[in-house]
Write a structure and sequence with these properties.
By secondary structure, the chain is mainly alpha-helical. It has one domain: MFS general substrate transporter like domains (Growth Hormone, Chain: A), CATH 1.20.1250.20. It has 15 helices and no strands. Helix 2 packs antiparallel against helix 3, helix 3 packs antiparallel against helix 14 and helix 6 runs antiparallel to helix 11.
Length: 421
């Protein structure tokens, strides 16, 4: 199994990328955990937790399509290097703000907005560049699944470390460690040997490129359905994570460490899901697996929602996260292995808009709903919605089968026709 699970590591550039990003993402999850904890400790407001998510992700939604166009028009490598440097500066500013102690919620949220804008350009460039990092293009789906495992292993480790660091050393040290983690990814990028960038002649302006990307997605049903379902999941289900601090502090009567443990267990479930996806054999029916795991996701949330036994709640959170992983990874794989290379950055930016744009809006909705019906009932409702979205996937599969259309699988992709948080 190990041979197929880690095939992408045969590529030197991808190994460098994976190593640097792994360190950086641990710091990123530490910062996300610390920001949520600081905001909730200051305000004790569930709505402010939703607003925190909104502040980071909504700017990504607003600017991600522009980020996709920039990724298709210019040197993705230099763009990615720039976004990492700016992200490190943002982390340093946040560290200094917390260190000197005279800060308000709105100052933290303003720096979150800055990070969201940076991410709008970072995600299309980073995801698109993975294609150039993998020497053998048939290893591309494996590289994408390993990316997800990297993100979720970081989510497993980062929050747990954050909880311990916050309690032992303070919030400022936690933020400072994230700033330091960017050094690893910047060094890994500088060590890469990528193909020489050859600028393409452009006959359209940026607005024309935007229209062309939207038209391409609209006329490609397989891609538009996947993005549409991801948008629904992101709007109404994925924001369940904004309520985890409430479970940790109010329902399980815990501390920052409790929050870190729950978040880490969610990361463990998601990491397990990512490794499962990375181990799939070529020919696996990705759409069917996506549908099944959507039901797993919803079932896990329903079981977790009203559980008062802490160990049992951790188990249900892990099950939910296992199912959650497919929403992001398989959606990304289906898109990147079918999209036209010339459209790669723009389609990925639309994918990012569905993922990053709907979550902050959903965070506000979930935060508002939990104020009136309680966090347990809100999470129960999110689980039921996930089951309904699973039904939509099943219906789409039946329509594809009736139309005798081939289902995208983990198959070998011709290097000149296909592609890849």
């Amino acid at each position: 199994m190990a041979i197929s699970t880690f095939n992408a590591f045969k590529s030197r550039n991808y190994r460098l990328y994976f190593t640097g990003q792994s360190v950086s993402l641990i710091g990123t999850w530490m910062q996300k955990t610390a920001v949520s904890w600081v905001i909730y400790s200051l305000t004790h407001s569930k709505f402010m937790l939703g607003l925190t998510l909104f502040s980071t992700m909504f700017p990504s939604f607003l600017f991600s399509f522009i980020g996709g166009v920039v990724s298709d028009r210019y040197n993705r490598y230099k763009l990615l290097l720039l976004t990492q440097v700016v992200s490190m500066v943002q982390a340093i500013l946040l560290t200094l703000l917390i260190f000197f102690g005279h800060y308000t919620v709105w100052e933290i949220l303003s720096l979150s907005v800055l990070l969201g804008i940076v991410n709008a350009f970072d995600v299309p460039a980073r995801q698109s560049l993975v294609y150039d990092m993998v020497d053998d293009k048939k290893d591309l789906p494996n590289a994408l699944a390993l990316n997800s495992s990297m993100v979720n292993l970081s989510r497993l480790i980062g929050p747990g470390i954050a909880g311990l660091v916050i309690e032992k050393f303070g919030d400022d040290v936690c933020f400072g460690l994230n700033a330091l983690s960017f050094v690893a990814v910047i060094i890994s990028l500088l060590m890469m040997r990528l193909p020489v960038f050859i600028p393409r002649q452009r006959t359209k302006n940026i607005l024309g490129d935007l229209r062309e990307g939207l038209l391409y997605v609209r006329k490609t049903p397989d891609i538009s359905f996947v993005i549409g379902m991801l948008a629904l999941i992101s709007l109404l289900v994925l924001p369940f994570s904004t309520l985890i601090p409430v479970y940790a502090k109010d329902i399980f009567h815990g501390t920052a460490s409790t929050f870190g443990v729950i978040d880490s267990v969610i990361g463990l479930g998601a990491f397990s899901g990512a490794i499962f996806l990375a181990s799939l054999k070529p020919g696996s029916n990705l759409r069917k697996i996506l549908a099944i795991n959507t039901f797993v996701f919803g079932t896990g949330l329903i079981l977790f929602s009203h559980t008062t036994l802490y160990p049992l709640a951790l188990l249900f959170a892990m099950i939910a996260a296992f199912g959650m992983m497919s929403q992001i990874t398989i959606s990304n794989t289906l898109i990147q292995t079918t999209v036209d290379p010339a459209m790669r950055g723009r389609v990925i930016s639309i994918y990012a808009m569905a993922f990053f744009g709907m979550q902050p809006l959903g965070g506000l909705i979930i935060g508002f709903a939990s104020q009136y019906i309680g966090v347990e009932n809100t999470l129960l409702g999110e689980g039921i919605i996930a089951l309904a979205i699973g039904v939509l996937h099943v219906r789409f599969l039946k329509k594809r089968k009736a139309g005798r259309n081939p289902v995208p699988t983990l198959r070998k992709q011709p290097a000149d026709t296909t592609i890849p948080v």
